[in-house]
Amino acid sequence: MISRRIFSGAVTAGLAAVLGSAGPAAASPREAVADPSDARPRSGRRVRNVVLVHGAYADGSSWSEVIERLQSAGVNVTAVQNPLTSLADDVAATERALAFQDGPTILAAHSWGGTVISQAGTAPNVAGLVYVAARAPEAGEDYTALAGRFPTPPATAQLVESGGFKQLSRDGFLNDFANGVPRRRALAMYAAQGRISDSLFAGTTTATAWQHKPTWYAVSKNDRTTSTALEQFLAARMGATTIELDSGHLSIVTHADDIARLILDACDQAG
């Protein structure tokens, strides 16, 4: 059985302070997380490049709060703009971003982006993978069938279709996708949401990058877009270093400190 490590958001925040200490109480490297508020260059950081992959019903700006924190910590950050037209198209966009990196890179994804990095993460310059409330299929796996074994989240009933594309209704976006997000930010994200092709989720991966790279996972305990139980299952299956947050689906907005710490931990430990 694959073991997993689950840390609460509070413990994760506490460990951030420990990381900078050289005293005997310092946590082990695998358990500690870096402090995103520390903008000083870290000579010991193994990986200094991060590529961020957004999910469905969003765009690259959904990572804005995390981007600010990573840049303040001296990390080079690139946010992919997925077309959301097919898995192949999104993988190609991510591969183009990876090709621009000048060294080892942490590849992080939110939601649908987890499917993308499970394929694109096989690139040789990818040193580690971070999943945030994200899908993580095995090669060839029917993810829809897998998700059907877990509770159906409320957002599923809030999809609106037109012209071969889907988006979330206003109520579905604000109440189920962006629950917990400040209303002004949620409304702005709703206006910019990425419409997905009808066939987007039908794509299946041909690779399982998380079987070959170190992984980290952030579970959202109040998620109304993806089943929390499904997220926990995926994190355990990949044997990821895992944190659980009192967050809705968009922890990259509401818990940006925790997500940035998790990515920085990956930067410090991968490679």
Automatic annotation (TrEMBL):
Residues 1-27 form the signal peptide. It comes from the Bacteria. Keywords: Hydrolase, Signal. This is Alpha/beta hydrolase. SUPFAM superfamilies: alpha/beta-Hydrolases. It comes from Streptantibioticus silvisoli. One of its GO terms (molecular function) is hydrolase activity. Residues 50-261 form the AB hydrolase-1 domain.
